[in-house]
Amino acid sequence: MSSTAVRLPSPRIPGARGRLQDIPVAGHKKVLLASPRGYCAGVDRAVIAVEKALERYGAPVYVRKQIVHNIHVVTELEAQGAIFVDEVDEVPEGAHVVFSAHGVSPAVVNEAAARGLQAIDATCPLVTKVHREAVRFARDDFEILLIGHDGHEEVEGTAGEAPDHVTIVNSPEDAETVEVKDPSKVVWLSQTTLSVDETMETVRRLRERFPELNDPPSDDICYATQNRQVAIKKVAKDADLVIVVGSSNSSNSVRLVEVALEYGAQAAYRVDYAHEIEQAWLDGVETVGVTSGASVPEVLVQEVLAELAGAGYRDVEQVRTAEEDLMFSLPKELRQDASGKRDERALGGRGTGDRG
Q1: 154 annotated active-site
Q2: Which of 21, 129, 148, 288, by CA, is between 20 and 30 Å from 330?
Q3: Residue 237: how many CB atoms within 10 A of its CB?
């Protein structure tokens, strides 16, 4: 690991500066900053899709569910004219509606079409891949054990692709009780934002019960989720405290807290904003690890670093475990500007963890 300078932009989040005290500790105070962190290509694509829809069509543009699971992103888009709704029946007939990065079921697509809505599908391409796998395995009459959290939007969308063939497995414990009709025709798929370790444990237990369990053709847990977990594992072993920036409904952010604790951090907390950091968390702490979930803009991480700097944690080492340069094309409706010329922002993928 090597020390790197970290640019700290002016704070944009309300909250008093200098709340935290610089209390001496036994050793040298420092921050281990995980990389990759923050925005992934799928999140970036979805956020840009809403921004460009507002530019192209004007406000309001409706979005079914939160475009990504981050309160700051949602609030910023609301300020630009986006209106977030729970279901498409809340959208005026004929209006523009964006489907979130987590994906939707065919039933939602059909309902939007029936209402004459102009739909823009911002589903992450990696989630779409899982949807296609579900359709293919259902067509071949496989039972699909979908590892994921019941009620999560992504799981609802994937299960909706083949509702008669999908059984949701919430945890390794669920793997001990799930029943199938034909153990010789079973396949597992997974939500893309899960803990890699917990998912593999669930698969292991399923395979003990169903030795002929089939694997998906490729890994369903997305590259960004895996990379962020690998990075925080490396940070956690040397950290007294880990702070994960991310919202409470962000599955991958919550998992980062769990992974940090499992891999050696003495304490780990999730915050939406820097002003949520508590002085008591820093008692006796020499090394603070910092990371963020895949739906978190970098400005929020920089706010945390500024808050920690005020408490004496000014030495920042970046711990890099991977490079990310994946980019996804925007939804087809948004790849050209109003004149028909290809838009300069036809790709999403600024989420390397080093840019705001």
Answers
A1: yes
A2: 148
A3: 13
Closest by Cα among 310, 296, 356 to 71: 296
For 268-323, the DSSP string reads: EEEESSGGG--GGGGTT--EEEEEE-TT--HHHHHHHHHHHHHTT---EEEEE---
For residue 264, pLDDT beyond 90: yes
- What's the pLDDT at 335? 87
| Listed residue (38, 21, 7) closest to 291, CA to CA | 38
pTM above 0.70, yes or no: yes
Options 133, 153, 154, 303, the catalytic residue: 154
d(CA 151, CA 263): 28
Q: What is the β-pairing status of strands 268-271 and 2-3?
A: unpaired
Query: Which residues share a beta bridge with 230?
Result: none
Q: Is the pLDDT of residue 351 over 70?
A: no
pLDDT by residue (tens digit) across 183-220?
A: 999 999 999 999 999 999 999 999 999 999 999 998 89
Burial class, 130, CB count within 10 angstroms (exposed 0-12 / middle 13-18 / buried 19+) = buried
